[in-house]
Write a structure and sequence with these properties.
Blueprint lengths: L2 H5 L3 E2 L5 E5 L2 H4 L12 H6 L21 H11 L3 E5 L2 H4 L9 H16 L3 E5 L7 H5 L7 H17 L5 E6 L1 H11 L9 H26 L3 E6 L4 E3 L4 H24 L24 H5 L5 E5 L4 E5 L3 H5 L4 E2 L5 H6 L1 E4 L16 H14 L4 E6 L16 H19 L4 E7 L18 E4 L4 E4 L1 H12 L1 E2 L5
Parallel strand pairs: 2-3, 2-13, 3-4, 4-5, 5-6, 6-8, 7-9, 8-12, 12-13
Antiparallel strand pairs: 1-16, 9-11, 10-11, 14-15
Helix pairs in contact: 8-10, 9-10, 15-16
Bound molecules: beta-D-fucopyranose.
């Protein structure tokens, strides 16, 4: 572990380092059928029985669509240099094709202007999972046409918001869209077919490549990148079977995205599992990989926790059930012959995610070592804890402060190792609709009382405001 992570010594960040926070459209906006917005796959999915915790949906969420001024004020108080939000495709182009829905664009124009008035750089994600439902009905990400539709949508939004946006991100976490959406089925659209997940992977990547060019064509020389959820995958033991299983999980989680984006090829060692990605297969057409490899200005990295994987069926696994916890009903892991491995001695968030900040340094240094010096933004990092408003009316989320402190130090360690990290965004500004976990999991710097929509900054909000102001960390987390 890097020493800076545990030493708690003060650290300062380079001048110009971007401190930010983020949200995503479906998680906060609500107003799902206002001003011409069409339905998305998340509207459909969240309304399916049993799909989300408690049957929660994003119908109202944080009602951000109507409270955008309040939320801009909060961002102003926090003092962040940048705010990362996503545009809901079905607000801008309700059916996924055809003309722009002007009220939808106007909403994001107001948001961008409100940010710029406060000196906050807008960072726009064009796709944070809310695919227009009519496109899903026509095959969703399993069909190539969706990538073409995406490029047209990207061109529209980039034309409308253009150079007023500091960072353009094509996609958020295509791994989740493809593998949780079409493979495991725990996210929209809730399909469970490995071949479909593979097809979705390729079409999302193609959408990214086409999107980068569309954004540049519409908005000129702006900063364009993609956000991936990458994570180190640790083997359960150093037994060759576990090493091989961890490598397979790494292939699925990380390399089937980074290899085409940075090297214009899919990882050969995954062809046995995903033959459709091999050259000459049914998916990858001539020119696709060149398109996917189009140069980007930055890579967004979302990091929460490292993964630990072992080989399914080893006798050790049966003997230590507390260590080897098969991913339940996970056809993707099953297909790879892998099981998830828990480490009992590590603290966890309420998502069950292990807290291990050193893994973020390892990830950032590893990316630089593998792919060279690409400017990186840590575009999401944060934690869910059982927050509550205490008798004094405060939310004293010291566990979150600790988590963020550790991870910001881990970013500092990566910078010290020469990685070109340009910024860090806390997930999230607000407690919000945490996908299949509904409103149970709170990630915000600001507590949201969903019954009243009251916003209450948590202790972590004040703590982060001071970090942003000081461009660095004090000695001890407060
Ligand atoms: C990421 C998502 C984000 C949020 C966090 C907790 O995978 O990009 O929307 O749900 O997890």
């Amino acid at each position: 572990m890097p020493s800076s992570e545990t030493s708690r010594s003060p650290i300062s960040f380079p001048a110009g380092f971007v401190w930010g926070t983020g949200t995503a459209s479906y998680q906060i906006e609500g107003a799902v059928d206002e001003d011409g917005r069409g339905p998305s796959i998340w509207d459909t999915f969240s309304h399916q029985k049993g799909a989300t915790h408690n049957g929660d949906t994003g119908d109202v969420a944080c009602d951000h669509y109507h409270r955008v001024e309040t939320d801009l004020e909060l961002l102003g108080q926090l003092g962040v240099g940048s705010y990362r939000f996503s545009v809901a495709w079905p607000r801008v182009q309700p059916t996924g094709k055809g003309p722009v829905n002007q009220p939808g664009i106007d909403f994001y124009r107001r948001l961008v202007d409100g940010l710029r008035d406060r000196g906050i750089a807008p960072a726009v994600t064009l796709y944070h999972w809310d695919l227009p439902q009519p496109l899903e009905d026509a095959g969703g990400w399993t069909v190539r046409d969706t990538a073409e539709r995406y490029a047209e949508y990207a061109w529209m939004v980039a034309g409308a918001l253009g150079g007023d946006v500091a960072l353009w991100t094509t996609l958020n976490e295509p791994w989740c869209s493809a593998w949780q959406g079409y493979g495991v089925g725990t996210q929209a659209p809730g399909r469970t077919d490995i071949d479909e997940a593979v097809a979705a992977t390729h079409h999302l990547l193609l959408a990214h490549g086409l999107g980068v060019e569309a954004i540049r064509a519409a908005a000129g020389s702006v900063q364009v990148g993609i956000t991936l959820n990458l994570t180190p995958v640790r083997p359960a033991t150093d037994h060759p079977d576990d090493l091989a299983a961890a490598r397979r999980v790494d292939g699925n989680q990380n390399r089937i995205f980074t290899e085409p984006i940075f090297r214009g090829r899919y990882p050969e060692d995954m062809f046995g599992h995903y033959p459709d990605l091999a050259p000459g297969g049914p998916l990858v057409q001539d020119g696709d990989l060149e398109q996917i490899r189009v140069p980007i200005d930055f890579l967004g990295v979302n990091f929460y926790f490292p993964k630990r994987a072992g080989a399914a069926g080893r006798p050790e696994a049966a003997a230590s059930p507390e260590l080897y916890l098969p991913w339940p009903n996970d056809p993707v892991a099953e297909h790879l012959g892998a099981v998830s491995v828990a480490r009992g001695d590590v603290a966890q968030t309420t998502m069950g995610w292990e807290v291990e900040p050193g893994a973020l340094t390892e990830l950032l240094v590893g990316l630089r070592d593998q792919y060279g010096s690409v400017p990186v933004y840590v575009s999401e990092n944060g934690a869910a804890f059982p927050d509550y408003v205490d008798q004094t009316g405060a939310v004293r989320d010291h566990d979150r402060i600790d988590y963020l402190d550790g991870h910001i130090r881990a970013v500092g360690a990566a910078l010290a190792a020469g990685v070109d990290v340009r910024g860090y965004y806390v997930w999230s500004l607000l407690d919000n609709f945490e996908w299949a976990h509904g409103y149970k999991q709170r990630f915000g710097l600001v507590f949201v009382d969903y019954a009243t929509q009251e916003r209450l900054p948590k202790a972590s909000f004040d703590w982060y405001r001071d970090i942003v102001a000081a461009n660095g960390l004090p000695e001890e987390p407060v």
